[in-house]
Amino acid sequence: MPQFPQPKHDKDPMAYVPLRLEDYDISPTNGFLPTEPPLRRISNPYFEPWERIMDKFNQYLLAHHIRRLVRKMPVLDTSKLETQAEFQRAFTILSFMAHAFVWGRNSALSESASDFLPASISIPWVSVAKFLQINPVICCAAVCHWNWQILDENAKDPMDIDNLGTLHTFSGSTDESWFYLVTTAIEAKCAQGINAILDAVASVEEDNMERMTHALHKIAHSLRDANTLLVRIYERCDPYVFYWKIREFLAGWENMAEAGLPYGVLYEGVDDTDTPSLDSWQELIWRFRKYAGGSAAQTPLLQAFDIALGIKHYPTGKQGLQSSVSDARKRLYELGFSEPPVANSYLVRMRDYMPGGHRRFLEDLAATCRIREYVLLACSDQMLQAGHDGDLQVSMRQAYNECIDLMKAFRDKHIMLVTRYIIAQANTGPLMPAPPVTSVSSHIIPHASHTQALMRARSSDTPPPGGRLGGDSLPADPTMYPQTNTHSLRLAQPTRVRSQNHHALQSAAPSQASFSSTNGKGNRLARKVEDGSVVRGTGGTDAMQFLKQVRNETANTRI
What we know:
The protein is an all-alpha fold.
């Protein structure tokens, strides 16, 4: 049996701590999905202003009415939400409305992306996100984890992909529903893999190779299901529809200057409550938020498998330390545990787009799990050189490598999907050219005169240029929604982020003309790219470089 040498530290960072899924809001039957289907509606009539918009969400978006309707919404008090399911429902529908507001249009087809969110969305969205411990932006949890329904409760497998439907989409298309449901079904099918990870962790503590091998086989079974489901996306999601009609709404506001959001998005009523005290528009720029959009990297499922199997990811463009198996074993014998490498910062940041319980599970799993180390130490030098040893060690090693091969196969399939659904579409261009977008972002304050106008508006209830005053969201019944008057709202002021070049930025401030969107083809996320241009994912990264490196790092983990 493999024996872990004592680490050369006062405290063993690899000490075993048993994990319980229920402590992290993880379902033993559905994994990172809720055990019960998400709410279709918040029953409290107080929240009807949200639900009424969602009742006809696709029609309003099609008719370019979303921005007008959102501005008229009252600012609802989220303390009236009572259950976890209600908070999840609130986060999902606010995410859909927020991204429809930012990336959708009003009445003009040539209208650009909005660089601010009105208080009617931003205040409750930030509050709900704080409760769920997740960033206030659309994410995998909003569209896949909390956005599904079971069609037939009596079906043999209620969570089978052909028995699932979505609650909401941006486009109203079956293509978009299917795109979300593939991920939802993968999460459900892989629930047994999450349970198997805990079995494997326990087997290390017990020094039980047989239990470890059995757990690895169950993980492999889940990964085979995931591979099978992933390629089913081709059945009902058309690449053209996805890229040109759906993908844009899933984008965030980080690294999105080319799409019309050079500074991100300002959350009205949250980050600008002391706007009259700001002496220049440059000061306001530092209040804008930048978040990545929806990304597959935000599912805790794949990161859990990575952690469990010891797959290390490094900063994009840099080669990791995971070289040879012999070197890895040598480090184990010398140190008693694997030294944690510098992680891929993007993947670590994506944990902020996961619910708090799921994020803590990944952190605690990383501090507890040493499956790869156990398998490594079970493999003798002769086994590594000649490929044979005792039957139990051979079976365990084969089961581990099968898991690695299936993770690589999954990432190969993901790269093919990105190539077909994003890269090919971006290089081909739309069937119908989009109208040019030349509007200037009037919500950013470019001159002192605009700042003064905003200050006057704050004191006189007169909407400022761009309509950014929360007062235009007053409801018909102010007695039911007294908190709608945003003049009385003063949330905690966020920490202002400054760079060392802050004063240089002020001195080199752009003129109003520089805020104009690039003409036509360059101001939307869904657009044809020029030769050699980087195609960014909705998370704002160079999609192909990132995915290929993650795939290669997975392959290099085989023992």
